[in-house]
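Q: Hi! Curious about what Helix-turn-helix transcriptional regulator looks like structurally. Here's the sequence.
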Amino acid sequence: MEKRSPIFDRVSKSTPPELKRKITHSFAISERILDILEYRGISQAELARMLSKSESEISKWMSGVHNFTSETIAKIEVALDEDILTIAQGFRHKPLAVKKRK
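A: Let's find out. The predicted structure is below.
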């Protein structure tokens, strides 16, 4: 097993959980788009044309660190006719009590 760097461990421990989650989401979105492109035989250049974007912009998006907006995701979903995100329904944990708003 490969040993991790102490610097990596220190940085990882000091990274806020919400930033870790954001990075995980960004990579997952990029991977999902790349999987769809590969499955459909669509190049990043073709996706750029479909979205009226430059090839370099699409390449940056696919790097895994782009902060996708819901608008951009929706445009990609429409262009590819495929869902990128699945929104969870309900709660993972049932709320103990819910106050009704007045």
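A: A fun detail: Residues 4 and 10 are 11 Å apart (CA to CA).
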